[in-house]
Amino acid sequence: MRLRPPDFVARFPWLGGDLQTLRNFVVRPRPDLAPWPARRIELPLDDGSGDRLLAVLQDNPGEARPLVVLVHGLTGCQDSFYVLATTRHFLDQGYPVLRLNLRGAGPGRPLARGGYNAGSSADLAAALRALDARDGRLLARGLALVGYSLGGNILLKFLAEAGRDFPVRAAASVSAPIDLKATQVRIMEARNRVYHAYLLSRMKAELLATPGGVPPEVAERAAQARSVLAFDDAIVAPAAGFSGAEDYYARCSSQGFLSAIETPTLLLHARDDPWIPAAAYENAEGRTAPNLQVWLLAGGGHVGFHGRGSRTPWHDRVIGRHFGACLGT
Asked: pTM of this prediction?
């Protein structure tokens, strides 16, 4: 079922793309998840690395709804504000929720020598297989998946490659960098120098927190990287088997995978996102598979969408409507 995008009106004082984006970093208090007991789960990957992904499961006993799996963005984790806000929203709606840390992210860093990248769709598939092997009932009612920013790109790539192998009933991405090269160019613009410095410092910190440390030559290459492009070229791309950053961006951008997605999927993006250009979404509108909906809004920032009329982010409310339409609830 195709929905019409409702109007988004920013909530004062979070006006404009930058303030919409920054609210996630400054807002207090964090969403309260205490009413739903949390269970820590370690999910072994099947690539021979010995790495494991850390996840947090919060169930809704007695409810018969699919498991919502949330995939965070670059330098985020299970405790990112936007992940906690979505978790609270879907727990309130009766869904069980799994907050998945990507390889080596956040509190999952001690469990993995490796790291994640924008193309880590195989890790998502392996995590779901491990979850099913651990407790098949969790997937028995199906899956509803949400990915944010870099995690959204991973999710869309996963849906195209392996979505049909899992009981995925609905999915959504928020502010996904579906054109990685264009995103790299945008984040390195002068107006984004503070964002760029923040992301680069966090990327380096994740690398240097590798259990047992990193080889001196890798640490040196990381120290010498003065941009996200240089870091991707020297660290991320070689670790993932790509010849360099340009190869990595070309082969992992989810815009090239959209036509293969069979799952009913909602792609949300804002024109005033300061990190990710809208052009790729403009090109995708009307050119994707019939089961994909691309909603390109005038405002909302980067994983912001703090709208008038509710403290629940607008994107959580519309994703909830999308899931309900797909699931018939």
From this structure: 0.96
Closest by CA position to 122, among listed 158, 156, 151, 77: 158
Q: What is the pLDDT of residues 261-283, one digit of tens each?
A: 999 999 999 999 999 999 999 99
User: Coil, strand or helix: which one is 67?
Assistant: strand
Q: Are strands 168-174 and 265-270 parallel, antiparallel or unpaired?
A: parallel
8 Å CB contact between 260 and 233: no
Q: Which residue has the tokens 């996963």?
A: 158
Distance between CA 154 and CA 145 in Å, rounded? 11
Angle between helices 216-224 and 193-208 (to 10 degrees): 180
pLDDT, tens digit (0-9, with 9 covering 90-100), for 14-51:
999 999 999 998 877 789 999 999 999 999 999 999 99
Enumerate residues 6+ apart whose C-beta is below 8 A from 247.
Answer: 237
**Alpha-carbon gap, residue 171 to 190, rounded angstroms:** 34
Distance, CA of 2 to CA of 24 (rounded, Å): 29
In this structure, are residues 53 and 29 in contact, taking their beta carbons and an 8 Å threshold? no
Residue ranges and CATH numbers for the domains of the chain are 17-179+255-327 (3.40.50.1820), 180-252 (no CATH)
